[in-house]
Design brief:
The complex is a heterodimer. By secondary structure, chain A is an alpha/beta fold. Chain A has helices spanning 2-6, 21-32, 73-82, 102-111, 167-173, 182-185, 219-225, 230-257, 260-276, 280-295, 298-324, and strands spanning 11-16, 37-42, 53-54, 57-58, 62-66, 92-95, 149-150, 153-154, 197-198. Chain A is 44% helix and 9% strand. Classes of the chains: A alpha/beta, B alpha/beta.
């Protein structure tokens, strides 16, 4: 997920009505069809809730506005987006505020591959005039009085409400046309935070496994970083050694005192620094300790403290050998 | 190029400084509050930072709050959008909530510790900062 946000992958920003599950189901469905990230922001929170660009490039590759057919929030969001130079060319898709079928998400995904999508002008009701949105979900509007298609991709298809009489017919015609519910795809419950933004649902958050030939300390990355100033490598090593010596005293003391909050913080400090120095043994044992302490499990903490102390002692020994090496 | 590295862990600060020093002058802050003071002073003196690296878990003001505060300060100075400072989160926090919160609060990049030199340089390249491009 970090890579998806950091790199220019397919990312959707969804503006959805408040207290409407359509945004959540669309968020999940888009990830099913290849979107790496889909963020949901409530329409009522407007543009203030997100940063639209990154160093001159859109942070998102498409904006989807749910609802707003009768209200003004959707058109206002769209117009505001069009007014930002960096976002002017960003595809904006408008869909109805019903649960969006997975098939519709496939269409949205395919629409993104069409370079001419933004050039289309729609015959819209007055609120949507000159906004330049694409409506893949409604037959009520047409492009230049013709059937709404984009290079053969049908973009105007109705998205009936789940309870509407037409749904059963659509389901028969289109195996993917069923309204997508959260429970259909992932057994998760979502609730917006105080700023009205729903979290990304990690479909598969990769677990980072780091291995190194020397789990206690590999000085090579440090020496590489400090290549222009070899002395600073030993300064950094001295800093972590001081932290380790303190931690060797603090970990058992905090554990025996039952101060697991402080223990978690102390383990976190060593965890972050040791990994950056290639000491993956300490990194892993301190991470385990940090989590055990945060969870308040005393018996796990006891085991984790012993493991962390053992690996930190080996790390200190390696550091001491490192200090003896010439610069 | 002026870089502000904010981390309560001196080891991580020094490592980041070692990686970023070829790109410009690195200054260190040990917490969010100190970073805010340094950032504001730099703006007032019309010598702003070009890049801010932020840890999230810090004892006084955490990285998310610091990030929001920096964007608010910029808005107060009339600095909006891509004219703002580039902010790179460098943290051990790898949970989705931390990551999305950071991007929602307008960071430009997110690096999960342990700090990897190649990863940092890759991120710096993606920030598309002119001075960084010249060094590449």
């Amino acid at each position: 997920m970090v890579d998806a946000l950091n790199n220019n992958e397919r990312r959707a920003l969804i503006f959805a009505p408040a207290n409407d599950q359509a945004g959540q189901s669309l968020q999940i469905a888009l990830q099913q069809v290849g979107f790496s990230v889909a963020l949901v922001i409530q329409l009522s929170h407007g543009l203030g809730a997100f940063r639209g660009d990154r160093a001159g490039e859109p942070l998102y590759s498409i904006v989807i506005i749910l609802g707003g057919q009768s209200g003004l929030s959707g058109p206002i969001i769209a117009q505001a987006l069009r007014g930002v130079p960096e976002l002017a060319e960003l595809p904006i898709i408008l869909v109805s505020d019903t649960p969006v079928p997975l098939a519709r998400c496939v269409v949205i995904s395919r629409l993104m591959d069409n370079a001419d999508i933004c050039a289309l002008a729609l015959q819209e009701p007055k609120h949507w005039q000159s906004v330049g949105v694409i409506r893949p979900d409604s037959p009520r509007y047409s492009i230049n009085n013709t059937t709404s298609t984009v290079n053969g991709i049908v973009t105007e298809v109705d998205t009936p409400r789940k309870s509407s009489p037409t749904q059963s017919q659509e389901t028969k015609e289109d195996n993917l046309g069923k309204a997508t519910e959260i429970s259909d795809i992932a057994p998760v419950s979502l609730s917006p935070n105080r700023s009205g933004v729903l979290p990304i649902i990690p479909m598969s958050l990769p677990h980072t496994v780091v291995t190194t030939p020397d789990e206690e300390f590999d000085p090579n990355p440090l020496l590489k970083i400090c290549a222009r100033s070899p002395g600073s490598a030993k300064e950094i090593a001295a800093l972590i050694r001081g932290d380790l010596v303190r931690a060797l005293n603090d970990f058992p003391r905090l554990q025996s005192n039952g101060d697991l909050t402080a223990l978690s913080k102390a383990a976190h400090k060593i965890h972050g620094a040791s990994g950056s120095l290639g000491a993956m043994g300490v990194y892993n044992t301190c991470l385990t300790l940090e989590k055990a302490a945060a969870s308040g499990n005393h018996s796990e903490c006891q085991v984790a403290v012993n493991a962390a102390v053992s690996s930190m002692l080996r790390f200190v020994q390696r550091l001491d050998r490192f200090f003896l090496t010439p610069n | 190029m002026r870089i502000l590295i904010t981390d309560d862990d001196q080891v991580c600060s020094q490592i980041l400084s070692g990686i970023l020093s070829p790109y410009g002058t690195c200054q260190l802050a040990e917490g969010g509050e100190q970073a805010i003071r340094m950032f504001t002073n730099a703006l007032v003196r019309k010598n702003p930072y070009d890049l801010v690296c932020l840890d999230i878990l810090m004892p006084d003001m955490d990285g998310h709050a610091t990030l929001s505060c920096i964007r608010s300060i910029e808005a107060g100075f009339g600095i909006m959008g891509s004219a703002g400072v580039r902010i790179l989160m460098v943290t051990t926090r790898d949970d989705p909530e931390s990551i999305t919160t950071a991007f929602r609060r307008q960071c430009e990049g997110y690096i999960i510790k342990p700090i990897d030199e190649d990863q940092v340089k890759k991120q710096i390249g993606q920030l598309r900062m002119k001075s960084f491009d010249e060094i590449k």
